[in-house]
Amino acid sequence: MDVQQLKIFITENPVFRSYMFYTAILTLKMMFMSLLTIRQRVMNNSFVSEEDAMYLKGMVSRTNEHVERVRRGHRNDMENIYLFFVIGFAYIWTDPSPFFANLLFFIFTVSRIIHTCVYTVIIMPQPIRGRAWLIGFLITGYMAIKTLLHFC
After folding, report:
1. What parts of the chain have a pLDDT lower than 50?
2. CA geometry: angle at 134 spanning 144 and 70, to 5°?
3. Which residue from 25, 99, 110, 114 lies 20 to 30 Å from 81 (Cα-Cα)?
4. What is the per-residue pLDDT for 50?
């Protein structure tokens, strides 16, 4: 397969296109989390560096619960979304059903958005956050097992 054939295969593959669409949404979501962290730092006058604290007339603090909650949510995203990016790309090459793959990508994305909302924006009690996390975890695990079995 030459480069042109590979390019056509990739751009016309509905599973790859779906993966790229949801990857872009999740990337924007993680960028939003960075902005949300900055917002919390400014609103709570809680900064990590002396320079930021002096410039914005705040204080150096690494223990503000509002800031730390958003940071933990962002860290949780990095622990889960990056794995999805990697295994989702590998999963494309297992030649899954376009409908099913799109459904998995969609549900994973929605579960991560719900997780963020109930953990950092509109704080809700468990088990909502745990279930949102578990759905994404199971989807990532399914794709990993499916990919492993396909390539063994």
Report:
1. none
2. 110
3. 99
4. 82
